[in-house]
Structures are given as structure tokens and as C-alpha cells.
Amino acid sequence: MRANKVMGIIFSNMHDSMLGELTERRTTGSVPFGGRYRLIDFVLSAMVNADIQDIGIITKSNYQSLMDHVGAGRAWDLARKVGGLVIIPPFASQTSGIYRGRLEALQGAISFIRHNNAKYVLLADCDTVANIDLRDMISEHIHTGAQITMMCRRADVQPDTARDTTILTCDEETMDVTDIMVRPDVKGTQTIYMNGLLIEKTLLERLVNEGKGHDHYSLVRHAIQPALGKLNIKAYLFEGYAQRVSNMRSYFAASMELLDPKVRATLFPKDRPVYTKVRDQVPVKYGLSARVGNSLIADGCIINGDVQNCIIFRGAKIGKGAVLKNCIIMQDTYIGDNAHLEYVVTDKDVLIKDSRVLIGYETYPTYISKGSAITNVTALAPSIRARLPA
Q: Which residues of 261-292 are buried (b: 16+ CB within 10 A; e: fewer)?
């Protein structure tokens, strides 16, 4: 047994209600991203890169696609006879039903936690696109002797983004957490809690048991806030690139930022790779009429149209004369000949027939749900209608 062994717990469903249509049939963790990844890949890979070998994923609902994606954890080298990756089914109590918050969710995982020989537990959500060196956070936690270390970053907060935001107040020299505000009425640059923390395993077990006895369900509000001044709680400031996916607009914005080579270099460094489920498909096939600029095209695609500033997932097919600008086209979508799409997000297995027109806004992209067929609809913003060809 390693003296400072760390185990991981990932919450896969905590932000489903925030993402609307994207999580209608899937969890937050299994939301497709960047042409070939899922949102859970970033936090799961960060844990693996930090040599965390025992990881539990807490589920709640709509987790079939998540199970299909992670499987036994082979892509992350977590398919092991002892330990490795474990899917923890939903936990329901007789009084409250399916868990209401992280503290209550941990009650269903307490057996998994208790029987592990780790000294620390790393808890994390999967709604943030970032490549975090967790080794640095673990090292700082051990060095400072903290009982809880909360991961945070400095970012701008606006009223429309504060609905599910927790703000920390910290001593700039010691990084002691002196105050925690949940969904506060603030704006401007703030220290935002990233829904990730490192905690002593024995302390976590005690907090979970106490929460169960008092019918508490929120880890921050019911366990950590009351412990300020009683426990040694530190903040770990992450200063790298990070984008939180909290709604369709932020999902679209984070996806489009991948078209910047500097962002891609930050998210996918060679020394901390982001692993995902591998699919053996043929390379992209470009037709004679294809024109592609500043786009990410995954393997298995067939491109015969004009694709600009787009992210195209595996197996998508773009017809002749089709024009796509600033779009996210998910797996196995078919775009017919002479179709015109701008600021559109299509989910998996969407059919858009020939000559159809779909146009949204950068701040409000048009979303087409999984398995839909667009056969006789033209949807476009009135301000853009005038500049389209007849």
C-alpha cells in the first residue's frame, strides 16, 4: 500500500438539468465533445495521468451511453482484476428517492470508498473542459497538511452564469478558505469553485455518515460550509485553460475554441494525453468538390461540400454543394446535397435532406436532437435570410 494513495470519485450527472437537450438521453459525462471525445474523458484522463488507479463513477439516470463509452476502462488502462474503474449505480433512500446532491450520492458509494485502502479521495464533476495536472494539487494538499483542498480558478461571473456557481474567499498568502458562497448575487472576476476537491478518506466517511443522520444532501452547503474555521480547508488555484459547459451556449463556445491551435495545444499536451474510447474507422474521404477550412474532421467522414469553422464527428457525411459554417455535426449525421447550415448543432444520427436550410445565432445555436430527420423545414434567423442565395 502506498502511504499517500489517492482514489477518485466522478459525479456523472450533477449538471444534467443545466444542459437541456444535450442530456435528454444521456448524462453530462457522456456528452460528445471535440469530434471524438466525451466530457468525462478530461477528468478521467487527468486522474489516470496522476496515477490514480481506483476510480468510481457515480451515476443517476440515462447512463447507458456512459457505460457504452467507458466500458471496463480499457482505454484508460483501468480494466483490472482488483480495483480499476467501477460504475456505481444510482442510490435511492426511502425518504428522498434518488439522491439530491453530492453528499447524499456518496452514501450510495460509501461501501466502495470504505473498502479501498487509499488515504485520500479526489471528488470531481465532469462539466469542465480542462487538462489539469492533479499531481500538483495532490502534492500541495499533502505539503500543506490540509484536510480538504478545493480546486478553484479565477474567472468572470455574470448573472446568467451564477445560477450554479460557488464562490470562494481565500487568504492570498496561505490559501486558507475563509468563506464559501453558493449561487451568490455577484458579478465580475471571482474565485470560482470547480466542483473538485481532495479530502482525507476518514474525514469524508465521517461527513457522509453525519449527513445521513441529519438528512443532509449537499456536500458544500451541509458539510463544508459549517466546517469553515474548524477544519483546515485550503484552495488550490488552477491557472490553466478551462471552460465550464453549463448550457448549450457554453457548450458551443467551448467547442468552437478548439479551432484555435493554442487552445488545442493546451488541452492536449503530449505529457498528459486525453484518452477516449478508440474506434477503428477509415480516414476521412474528401470528394473533388470538397472545400474545408479551419475545421476538425474526425475519421470515418465523407466530405463533398464546403465546410468552414466546423467540428465534424466520426462517420458524418456531407453532400455535394452543401455549405456548413460554424457548426457542430455529431456522429453518423447525414447532410444532404445543397443543404445550408450555420450555427447548428446536430446530435447523433441526424438526417438533413437535400437543400434544407438551418441557421441559428452564435449565442443561440439551432439544436437538432438525436435521430431526428429534417425533411421539409427551413429554419433561419430573419436577419440572416436576406443574405442567403435564392
A: eebeeebeeeebebbbeeeeeeebebeeebeb
Comparing CA positions, the residue from 15, 36, 119 lying closest to residue 332 is 36
CB proximity list for 2: less than 8 A, separation 6 or greater:
none
Pick from 35, 46, 36, 38: which is nearest to 12 by CA?
38
For residue range 274-295, list pLDDT tens digits in order: 999 988 889 999 999 999 999 9
Would you say residue 244 has pLDDT above 80? Answer: yes
What is the reported pTM? 0.92
Closest CA to 74 of 282, 281, 299, 275: 275
Given this model, what pLDDT does residue 222 score?
93
Q: Under a CB-based contact definition with an 8 Å cutoff, are residues 66 and 59 in contact?
A: yes
Interatomic CA distance for residues 236 and 239, integer angstroms: 10
- If DSSP codes are grouped into helix, strand and coil, which group holds residue 232? coil
The 10s digit of each residue's pLDDT in 50-99 is: 999 999 999 988 889 999 999 999 999 999 888 899 999 876 555 555 77
Contact between residue 52 and residue 122 where contact means Cβ atoms under 8 Å apart: yes
Q: CA of 305: how far to CAs of 292, 293, 321, 339, in Å?
A: 8, 11, 5, 9
Q: Which residues pair with 153 in a beta bridge?
A: 192
Confidence check: pLDDT of 18 > 90: no
Task: State the Rg of the chain over Cα.
Answer: 22
Q: CA–CA separation, 32 vs 22, rounded Å? A: 9
| Helix or strand (DSSP H, E) at 33 | strand 32-33
Tell which residue, 217, 224, 220, has the closest CA to residue 91. 217
**Rounded Cα gap, residues 195 and 234, in angstroms:** 14
- Identify the residue whose cell numbers are 473533388: 288
What are the CA-CA distances from residue 244 to residues 28, 130, 352 (Å)?
12, 9, 30
Give the pLDDT score at 381: 44
pLDDT above 90: residue 4: no
| Cα dihedral 197, 245, 107, 230 sign | positive
State the pLDDT at residue 378.
Answer: 53
Is the alpha carbon torsion for 260, 261, 262, 264 positive or negative?
A: positive
Measured in residues, the chain has a length of 390
